[in-house]
Amino acid sequence: MKEKVSKKFQEIYGSGAILFASPGRINLIGEHTDYNGGFVFPGAVDKGIVAAIKLNGTDKVRAYALDLGESAEFGLNEADKPAQSWACYIFGVCREIQKRGGKIGGFDTVFAGDVPLGAGMSSSAALESTYAFALNDLYNCGIDKFELAKIGQSTEHNYCGVNCGIMDQFASSLGKKDNAILLNCKTLEYEYIPLELGNYSLVIANCNKPRSLQDSKYNERRAETEEALEKLKTVIPSAACLADISPAQFNEFGKKVLSGKVYDRAKHVIEECARVLSSAEALKKGEIEKFGEYLNQSHYSLRDLYEVTGDYLDALSARSREFDGCIGSRMTGAGFGGCTVSLVEKDKVDEFIKYVDEKYYADMGVRAAFYKTSIENGAQEIKE
Length: 384
Ligand code: GLA
Prior knowledge:
There is one protein chain. Helix content is 44%, strand content 22%. The chain contains eleven helices and 13 strands. Strand 10 (326-332) and strand 11 (339-345) form a beta hairpin. Helix 2 (85-99) crosses helix 4 (145-160). Alpha-D-galactopyranose binds at residues 31-32, 34-35, 122, 164-165, 167-168, 333-334.
């Protein structure tokens, strides 16, 4: 991919570009917990965005999206927001760097990606992290990696209409090869945990359902959990976020102030936070089967309580789970479409893919895509 990005840059803007890359991510467990101050457990993957960038000495950005064959040109003032949604990610990153005092100017850039779009593997976070990292580096802004992750998140909030949490941008910026990141999204304290899965491999499968309405439903879930927190605070005043509430406290007080869907949403978040910690413990002890069982429980909770799975992800994970040799499967990312992550016996991976592919196609009339993945480092310059 870096060759084709370099070549295109040369063709359009000439020589002298520097290459940068950032990965997409998978989240092993801890879904819809990040914006509730909870734990997540993602890792950066071997797919992402590569960009060629060269400062152009003007106050304009000239950008070319290779996969789309589209170009955009925009200035760096608030009023210059470009029309194309992909360009808004780059524009938003520039604006957020400026808001933090970074002195940046114009540049020429070409980018391409191999992280599937809209598949729950954070193509947008990879794009944001690439430009946040690159511009910070090229303009010596001195912004640390935590703040670079927040720049990506603020870009989503302020320029792309998604009130996302910090997980995706954090994983894309701070990913570490062969490690999952146990991240406390309230404090941003984190721990790298070696992803040693013994006899098992991770298999990612894309259900290939287009994610329509995803952004508005995501924001709706976020609003429901905020409503739950406000009500729970009347009986648990010390809770600053849902993740501050233990499952035992929720059992005691939840039904007093919550009902219906808002109760279910809060129950998912609170139990999922506990599951993340149990999963990390299981992984540290090499109890992979136990870890697999937590993945299943997470999916059931996202299906029944948080209601973000949908028929396609439910069918894909159910077909995965029923395969003899798969010990856990769940949706990963925001949901409403996108990918599942499954733990499969190493020497049965090909058989698993064949089985699930056929069964899922028979169920849904759509072909899934399968990716054998590895866990890689976060945002970086690509040295030739
Ligand atoms: C999306 C968001 C993340 C997180 C997940 C759900 O990927 O960008 O912040 O909320 O959904 O866990």
